[in-house]
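This part of the workshop introduces the protein records we will be handling. An example says more than a description, so a record of this kind follows:
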Amino acid sequence: MKKTFYKIKISLAALWIAIISFSSKVLWLITWPTLQQQNIYQWEVMYWVPSPGPETTINAIINAIKRFRIPLIIVIFIVWIVNFIKIRKIDDKTLKKKKIKSTAIIILIISIIILLMSISARLIKKYYA
């Protein structure tokens, strides 16, 4: 029992690391051309960095939010499919109910995050652009 618990714990940690590294790589690839165009990264002169204009920074933030929503939608479907397969194999009714409840909570949380990201992108665009 302990071995399976540790395997599950390690696999969840690896999954979170993969999700975080993928999202940070996506955000870096989104913002890097904007930073390059505005000469923010000046490797020769480290003490002076010009600040970007507010419009380009806001557009970069909005684009990052829009592009980050797509992987979250994909994660919802992956969680749903994997847990659906796992739930079908369970015979115990109480364990099945717990698994269904935890899956619903996870999908609900990710859906709320997507909704908040959509609302925040629209509010940023409305009030700052």
About this structure: The two ends are 55 Å apart (CA to CA). The chain is about 85% helix and 0% strand. Confidence is low (pLDDT under 50) at residues 43-47. The longest helix spans residues 2-37.
